[in-house]
Specification:
about 325 residues, alpha+beta, Beta-lactamase, eight-stranded antiparallel beta sheet, 10 strands
Length: about 325
């Protein structure tokens, strides 16, 4: 199946680039509400499913045992900018579970937010693992290891009790046989399993119906800044439309849910372009008949943005081009 065009980039009044992709919208019973393209071929969800990676932290009792706050839960489900507030919360999570930064196995990089990065350089700092966009998730995984009484060493390995617990959650929520799935290594060194967009969407729909899922959704909607950060799509959308939960993944993946409607959404831009995936995700969400007129209009606004050059001269735009 050839995937349809889901977003276009214009310049000088003509289309300069076209992005193809697929998506699926599913309810908690597995009913396909809306779709386009090949949503059945397995793809890696990457960071889009961090909420599932935190579910066992709640179900094991670790979140309560270590007194994790909503702010900390939101960071555990984030791909954050490495801004000072993100670093502060990650370090608090580590401390609560009697862990430290030396135990991290996510890898070090500079904050992705340029202001935070430049401030670190001016202060004579260096790239740290706590700056890693996945440091909140890894702090949650270390807390889970502590709760399970497992050696934190190699907690990123598929055979470690932490990753086995996460695999069980993905299997349960997304209705996939994890053992039969292709397993890769994510950018932060944890396992990532490839499975269909329709199953990812199903998992997010189910997330709206469980106690752990509801707790996670409430936390990320209460603290959207923790989920991404300054000028980031995820944060901006959830601030503008608090009734939605969205989460990006690398290589053009987006997942999310609409809790009040018990609907899950999963999307993949074939060429991995984030700007195309963002506008397409906003368009898919806006197309669903579950919003107020104001919410729908706001989401439609995120399905298009103007492009300017370095002199701030308007040159074109990026817009969703959804089929149907």
């Amino acid at each position: 199946m050839t995937n349809p065009i889901i977003a276009e980039v214009t310049r000088g009044g003509i289309v300069e680039s076209r992005h193809t992709g697929a998506f699926a919208v599913v309810d908690g019973d597995g009913k396909l509400i809306k779709s386009a393209g090949d949503f059945a071929t397995p793809v890696f969800p990457r960071s889009a499913i961090k909420a599932f990676q935190f579910v066992p932290v709640i179900e094991s009792g670790a979140a309560d045992a270590f007194g994790l706050t909503d702010e900390e839960i939101a960071l555990a489900c984030s791909s954050h900018n490495g801004e000072p507030e993100h670093v502060r919360v990650a370090r608090a999570m580590l401390q609560k579970a009697q862990n430290n930064e030396e135990l991290y196995e996510c890898g070090a990089h500079w904050p992705s937010n340029m202001e935070a990065q430049h401030n670190e350089v001016r202060a004579g700092g260096k790239a740290l693992q706590v700056h890693n966009n996945c440091s909140g998730k890894h702090a949650g995984m270390l807390a889970l290891a502590r709760q399970l009484g497992a050696d934190p060493k190699d907690y990123v390995k598929p055979e470690h009790p932490v990753q086995r617990a996460i695999a069980e959650v993905i299997a349960r929520y997304c209705e996939v046989d994890v053992k039969s799935l292709t397993c890769g290594i994510d950018g932060c060194s944890v396992p990532t399993w490839a499975f269909p967009l329709s199953n990812m969407a199903l998992g997010f729909a189910k997330l709206t119906e469980t106690a752990a899922g509801k707790r996670i959704i409430a936390a990320v909607r209460k603290h959207p800044f923790m989920v991404a950060g300054t000028k980031r799509f995820d944060t901006r959308v959830m601030q503008a439309v608090p009734r939605v939960f969205v989460k990006t993944g690398a290589e053009g993946v987006y997942c999310g849910c609409i809790p009040h409607a018990h609907i899950g959404v999963a999307l993949k831009c074939d060429d991995g372009a984030s700007r195309a995936a963002e506008t397409a995700m906003a368009s898919v969400l806006a197309s669903l008949d579950v919003w107020t007129a104001e919410e729908k209009e706001t989401l439609q606004g995120f399905a298009h943005h103007d492009l300017k050059n370095w002199r701030k001269t308007p040159v074109g735009d990026v817009h969703a081009a959804m089929p149907g």
